[in-house]
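Protein Entry — a single chain follows
Fields — amino acid sequence, structure tokens
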Amino acid sequence: MTDGSLPGGPILIGAAQMAGPAALTAAIDALAAAFADLAAGRTASPGRTVVDSSGGRQLVVGPAVWEPRGVASVKVTTLTPGNPERGLPLIHGVVVLTDLGTGRVAALLDGGELTAVRTGAVAGLATRLCAPPDAADVAIVGAGVQGRALLRAVCAVRPITSVRVFSRTRASAEAFGVWARADAAPGARVTVCGSGQDAVRDAAVICTATSVSGQTPVLEAGWVAPGAHVNAIGGTHEDAIEVDPALLATAAVVVEERAAALADAGEVRAGLAAGLIGPADLYELGDLVTGAATTGGRTSVFRSVGLAVEDTAAAAALWDQARNTSRDGAAAGLQ
């Protein structure tokens, strides 16, 4: 999507306008506000509509209204599992942000890029709320677009000095390492590991961002150090498992919304079926934001499934930033 705006119409927000720590921090802060509103019942996040087709392809439509902020959005995305092998992004799409006050379309945003920003931002928020304040080392399992988004977000909220990465494809992990040294974590020690266990050993923050579709976890419970924080955002469907469900029995399990996790989080569903946890054991992110609950320094697992209101909040933050940039540019031009 081309950056800029349509004459007399919505602002077009592409990858260039979503890049950088300022945009990411704004998105994290907006998500915190949205989850506080969600916890207080001031807004809601309807379920998404997913249409499956052959080869694991999906069309996903997610609408949400963020009433206190005065905006609404609809995201339409496609997920095509074969795209990475074609050299194409896994996710394509568009997000339409509307101004509730006037009903006008306020912005059109690149859906694939916004998904990466939003995914990173919600994991960054969970890390801000759950990980030790001095957490300095992070392990990334999965070296794709979402893995990069997660590393950016963790570096935005914690003083990261060490990054370890593992991917089933060594070349992808090596490319991730080169990018991390130059972009997300300059000055940090970046290590490409030969196994997931080597990557996560003693890490204070662990992020899993894979496209697993089966029941074999990529992160075993015994690999996780006591007090560590885990962000799990991968898996291709509601029964896919990235993180060993046994970890949930001893960790504080954080989810965006209880009902959404019960429907779409494979680890939560497996943990419930095995009697390892009950629905009441799930901490909702909004309660952590408002201080109504705390993980108390325990080992924590944030299992994200993605809510439509997250896209709305991130889009609103990026819209604000784009408008402010336009105003600053116009003011500079008048001087």
